[in-house]
Amino acid sequence: MAHVQVRDTLRTSPAPDLAPQPPALRVPWGTAPARRTPPTFRAVLRHRYCRRLLIASVAGRLSLGMVPVALILAAQADGHSLATASLLAALYGIAPALGLPLLGRLADLRGLPLPCHLGAALVATALGTLAIVGTSHLVVTAVCVALAGAGCPPLEGGLRSLWPTVLPDAAHVRSAYTLDSSAQEIVYVVGPALAITLASWLSPGAALALAAAVTWVGSLAFATTSPVRIWRAAPRHRARIGVLRPPAMRSLLMSLVFLGATVGALDVAGISVAEQLDEPWLAGALPATFSAAGLLGGVLFAHYQPASAPGPRYLLLLGAVFALCWLPLLAPLPASLLLALAMLPGALFVPLLTVASLAVTSLAPPGTSTEAVGWMSCAMRLGLAGGTALAGPLSGHFVVPLMTATLCALLLGIRTAPASAPSAV
Which of 113, 289, 404, 417 is close enough to 223 for a disulfide, judged by CB 3.0 to 4.6 Å? Predict the structure, then answer.
């Protein structure tokens, strides 16, 4: 399906404040020099700037987990129905799918600080407005919600473009990808819990204000780091569709739409099965268990991942096993066993997402690394929304995540790129 190399960023010395060096050598997928033991997360974070970049990036993305819950609580507090509140949360969830590819392209063309500052200012202004004036006026609220979502800074794409500039080799970069994918689970575990806690203690407006603040502070800490200020993407070819030009990229992104749909359908399935079993706590525990298993799966994958870069067959194998792990959940099960079985696909989610990220990176044309990750986020977010919308009419049955995971695995098996396709990024 693809060939991987170490991004299209300019390699720097261990102290990235020095002048950028020529572009790093590109390492084809599956042919990286072998290492006896993959670098650990601790080994990645020991390198200069890595800890600050990761913490700032996760902090800047924390609002993605906080805002949907805070919006629903704020809208209900202002007298809106649950249906209206849910539509506002869905609008916020879809809006980054439009904004992230555009801000990612701007980062590839002009550098990372500009879109990070621009996006953070837009998010802080929109969420700050909602925190002050509330959600009573639906038109104003919808505009602010759309701007807050579309303005999300390209922190995920920027971080993945920067890993090769602060790490010594491709093996460390692969571990960093796993670390980033694992840390992203924190956003969707800590974010909602933080929003609910603050809304209960103070008000939903306070939760929105905190979301605005962490986005601004995290983006500022990220954008002012030396590697961010000096990073520039490799020269890019002018093309109408840019990142989407390689045919294999389009099938890979479509597979990620279905991967996102499994998670979106899981949230609805949790609510449905909680009602069927008369166990209200299960509605929140099921997605939380899935995410916690993702963190564990990321740690294990970092320790046991292949010594060389994983190839296309590895990605297909992960996708197939991920789909099979949903089968046991179709049986009528007690709540405790249901939670235990939900850990199986959850533990595979981060490894699958990590290897898919490497494939996206490999297929992206030169000079489009940040935009490529933006398209990846776009695909996942569209899938999340679609999975939620599809699972509702089907009563939240687990057949929906099984079906979407199977479609994801099938698309991962489509190899539309010739074996001699050039590596990019």
Answer: 113
Question: 33's torsion region: left (phi>0), alpha (psi -120 to 50) or beta?
Answer: beta
- Taking the mean position of all CA atoms in its chain, how far away is CA 175? 16
The single residue listed with the structure tokens 């992206």 is 364
Predicted pLDDT at 147: 94
Tokens 């102290």 correspond to 15
- 3-state SS, 6-55, equals CCCEECCCCCCCCCCCCECCCCCCCCCCCCCCCCCHHHHHCCCCHHHHHH
Q: How far is CA 50 from the centre of its chain?
A: 18
Rounded distance between C-alpha atoms, residue 139 and residue 29, angstroms: 48
pLDDT at 311: 66
Task: Give pLDDT, residue 72.
Answer: 84
Q: Which residues contact 223 (CB under 8 A, 6 or more apart)?
A: 112, 113, 116, 117, 120, 153, 229
pLDDT at 224: 94
| In the block, residue with structure tokens 């720097």 | 12
Write out pLDDT tens, residues 301-333.
Answer: 877 776 666 667 778 888 899 999 999 988 888
* Whether the Cβ atoms of residue 252 and residue 359 lie closer than 8 Å to each other: yes
Residue ranges, the chain, pLDDT below 50 = 1-35, 416-425
Provide Rg for the chain, Cα atoms: 21
What secondary structure letter does DSSP report for 329? Answer: G
What does the alpha-carbon distance between residue 328 and residue 399 come to, in Å, rounded to a whole number? 11
| Residues composing the chain | 425
CA 98 – CA 201 distance, rounded (Å)? 34
pTM for this entry: 0.75
- The residues that bridge with 23 in the sheet, in sequence order, are 10
Q: What is the pLDDT of residues 85-133, one digit of tens each?
A: 878 888 888 888 888 888 988 888 888 899 999 999 999 999 999 999 9
How many Å apart are CA 58 and CA 180, to the nearest integer? Answer: 9
- Joined tokens for residue 98: 């439009």
H or E element: which one contains 67?
A: helix 63-77
- Residue 329: HSE in the Cβ half-sphere, 13 Å Cα cutoff: 29
- Name beta bridge partners: 233: 9
pLDDT at 325: 92
Q: State residue 59's pLDDT score.
A: 92
Start-to-end C-alpha separation, the chain: 15
Of 300, 302, 304, which Cα lies nearest the Cα of 292?
A: 300
Q: How far apart are CA 68 and CA 421, in angstroms?
A: 41
